[in-house]
Amino acid sequence: MSNDRETGTVLAPRYDANGLITAVASHAGTGELLMLAHMNAEALERTMATGEAHFWSRSRGRLWKKGETSGHVLHVREMRVDCDQDAIWLIVDPAGPACHTGEPSCFYRRVADGRLERI
Question: Does the reported pTM lie above 0.90?
Answer without folding.
Answer: yes
